[in-house]
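Collaborator request, handled under Task 6.
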Amino acid sequence: MSEYTIVIVRTIFAFFFILLLARLLGSKQIAQLTFFDYITGISIGNMPAALAIDVNMQPMDAIIGLLLFSLLTTLVVFGALKSLKFRKLVEGRPTILIRNGNVLEKNLFKEKITFDDLMQGLREKSVFKLADVEMATLETSGVITVMKKAEYNPLTPKDIGMPVEAEHTPSLIIVDGILLDKRLNYLGYSKEWLLGEVLKQGAKNFKNVFLAQIDSKGNVYVDLYNEEEKVTQVKQKPLLSAQLRKMQADLEGFAIQTNDQNAKQMYYNQSIELQDLINKINPYLKE
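Structure tokens returned to the collaborator:
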């Protein structure tokens, strides 16, 4: 067997062996890797690389090294899960960089973080002024997390007591022109209704649709193969809200126009009841 053939075979073996180990060890997002995870990943990755290109290395030696290193890594991870003190020893602990709006210069020096690094971390959290920050912490993954001062936090509907309709994960219902019937039925919508929504946006049938997604409020997003055919979708909820307000205004107009006192009172009463209804459902009619 030629040297090139040996390298190819060993490379394929090393690739699938490290893939198997990666699945067994578990995974984290790159942004969540601690220093220990980073060093471990580099070390385990170097062993299969050496096995692939170093023809003088015995495959069994590399396999034993990989298995032993993976076993030690698993033991360390297990120990970190079971013991808080051991976890702090292995992964470290978060460091506060800003407390009560004051920058802690000693902690910046300790973590080897410059002022530019700190400002970059704040900007990544959409914070551009130090005066807005109540606390900033350097996590063990190297990410800076920020808590703004209370007066600079965005206002939410809950803060002002405004009721909002719960919203859930949207679902794809058409993919590459194919209707996902089971998913549509699970969501409680009919095929005829969906076709009507698709026609409103310029498609002639489901085959004209590349992607279609429906949210928990029943709004349908449609992406056509030919975008030039797409038309602006009429938003049904704001339209219904406007129609209700027009009906309420019409009732008041009828009350003003009539001379019949009984009819006038009836129109006013109906106008008041309709206004109460509008006030109750209006938060749910916003897109």
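The cover message to the collaborator said: "The mean pLDDT is 79. Strands lie at 95-99, 102-103, 133-138, 144-148, 171-175, 178-179, 209-214, 220-224. Please let us know whether this matches your experimental observations."
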